[in-house]
Each structure stands twice: as C-alpha cells, then as structure tokens.
Amino acid sequence: MKAAMLYEYDPAVNVNLKIEDVRVPEITAPDEVIVRVGAAGLCRTDLHIIEGVWKPTMDPNGTLLPYIMGHENAGWVEDVGSSVKSVKPGDAVICHPFRSCGVCLNCRHGEDMYCDNGAFPGLGMNGGFAEYFVTSERSLIKLKKGIMPIEVAPLADAGITAYRAAKRAARLLRPGSYCVLVGIGGLGHIALQSLHAISGCRIIAVDREPAAQKLAKDLGADFVLDGGPNVIEEVKEITGGGAHVVIDFVGELGVENICWKMARKGGQMFVVGYGGKIEVPTVHLVIEEINIGGSLVGNYTELVELMELNADGKVKMHYTEYNLANINTAIDDFKHRRFTGRGVIVP
Ligand SMILES: [Zn+2]
Ligand SMILES: [Zn+2]
C-alpha cells in the first residue's frame, strides 16, 4: 500500500514525508480492526511531531523513525479480529484516536485519554497517512447512513478536542456570558459551532487571518477580532471587564500569555494548543481568582455526541482535500495557513 513515511525530525518542518510502498498491516490481536482509510486530517500535532517536540517523550533514543503519522482517521472496515462483534467489513467508521484498553480504572470512568495502557496510532506508531491502518474495535464509531468519511475524519481528533473544551466551557457559561476563542482554525471553528449548539453564551472569535475571520463570521461569531496589539482591551471593552472563559487553540508564539489576561475575575482559561510557556504572576491568580488548565483531546462518548451534532447539521467540518501523493504540499500550506478549516489527506 501507499504510505507517507516520516524519516527525520526538523525544527523548521522543511523535511518531506516520503511516499512509499509498504506492507499492508495485519491483524495481530483478536480485538483489532483494519480500516481502509477514507481520509485523515492533518493536525498541528503532526507538525509538532516533525519539529521534534514529541521526541523527548516518544523517541528518547532516536530509534522510532520511520513511521506513518495520521491520527484523525475515518474510513471503512476492511478486516476484523476474531473477537470483534460490533463492526464488520464494509462498515463506514470514524476512529477515536486513542486505543484505550477498556479495563483500567480510568477507562471504566470513561476517560479514554487517561488510559493506563493506551496506544495512539499516528503518534509513535503507524497511523492513517496510508491506505490502511490498524486500530481496535473499542475505538470505532459507525457513521450514520449518508455520511462520508472525508466529511468527518478530522472530527476524530480536532473535532473532539474542540468539543470537549467547548463542553467544559459551556458548564461555566450562562446566556449573556462571553467566551473568547483564540485561533479559528481546524479546532476553533468546531468549538464555535459546538458552543452555539450547547450554550447560550456570546462568542468572541480572535484570529489574525482574514479568511479565518470570515469563517468565524459565517459561522455566527458574535464578535470577530483581528488579534492586534489592543486585543486584550478590546475584549475587556466588549465584555465589560473580561471574558468568563477563554479557550486558547494556539498555545504558543506568545498567544498563551495574552489569553489569560482576557479573563475576568473568576474566569477560566482552557489551554488546547501547545508548544509555548505560560507565565502568570501568582498574585494575579489570587487577586483575579482566574483558573488556567489544559484540555486533552476527548473521550469516546464525547466523540459520539459530536457525531450526533454533526448528523443534525449543527457542527460541520470545513476542509480542503489533498491526495496522499501531495501531502508535503498540504503540510506546507498548513504551515503558511493557506487554507481555512482542516486539511484532509485522501489516499
Ligand atoms: Zn490531531
Ligand atoms: Zn484503559
């Protein structure tokens, strides 16, 4: 099968993935499923993997490469292990990105991402930038009739990550409250739609790119800001002192230290994008009583909920399609933000 192999790290992300012919994966455990990839979302995490951000934790000895990235996958079941009952060959599925074990206490609490024995296809092991990849039955959600894998693949990670943050935010937001979304890319535009669907809050979208600002307007953001040097004051002006919740989908390049300043007294900042470092005077945390915390992907049931919102037309993924052979163009376009929404790779 054709697959895009990562052979080396490069902080500047100037390396090319190599398109090669490799062996089709085989089932090695009873609960495994081989999925024929319909589409795989291209994620900022893929750029971070190439940059080497994950090398210290995932590849400390430098022996992991080459492998196939791609963790936002949807497609069709090709083959199933001997114990698989819930899907059969031909079924269209979206794949929760994490292969959680199902038996550890964290799994039993429903928090797949906290699983003690999990594995993440596409991060340190072969994923979906290929014609086929292997995951487990537990990770799969069947697509409703009429929904094509390409329309939903990035919901598998970008989507649930945004949805989980939006859902946590919604618990803190009443009608009339303000939520700032910083970065209206692949995740931000899903969070915007999710918040509209599950919360009565007012949404302030912040992005420097005109195309992203337009997308935010089209999706019904109440306010759209360009992220200029006065953005903190602009948010305070609109909100009367600061937002109730700020969700940071960038998390680097200095944005992370603008975001917490937009929160009002008792407000919350959720960190979703990563790579930077937050520095907050402790006195500010105390006087303003703000909370800062991360949000990690999402669990299986959150992906189910998101797929329901998608089926009802309330949350749609905006995407640009690239053939697997052109994955390096997709990566370059992503780096330079030449498309809005998500880049999607089709083998
Ligand atoms: Zn992702
Ligand atoms: Zn587990």
Automatic annotation (TrEMBL):
Q: Would you say which domain of life the source belongs to? A: Bacteria
**Does the keyword field hold Metal-binding?**
yes
- UniProt-recorded Gene Ontology molecular function terms: alcohol dehydrogenase (NAD+) activity; zinc ion binding
- Enzyme Commission identifier(s): 1.1.1.1
Cofactors (names): Zn(2+)
Q: Which PROSITE patterns match?
A: ADH_ZINC
- Which gene name does the record give? adh
Family matches, as PANTHER family: ALCOHOL DEHYDROGENASE 1-RELATED, VACUOLAR PROTEIN SORTING-ASSOCIATED PROTEIN 11
Alphabetized, the UniProt keywords read: Metal-binding, Oxidoreductase, Zinc
The entry's family comment says: Belongs to the zinc-containing alcohol dehydrogenase family.
UniProt source species: Hartmannibacter diazotrophicus
Q: What is this protein called?
A: alcohol dehydrogenase
Q: Where is the Enoyl reductase (ER) domain?
A: 12-345
> Per its UniProt record, what InterPro entries does this chain match?
ADH-like_C, ADH-like_N, ADH_Zn_CS, ER, GroES-like_sf, NAD(P)-bd_dom_sf
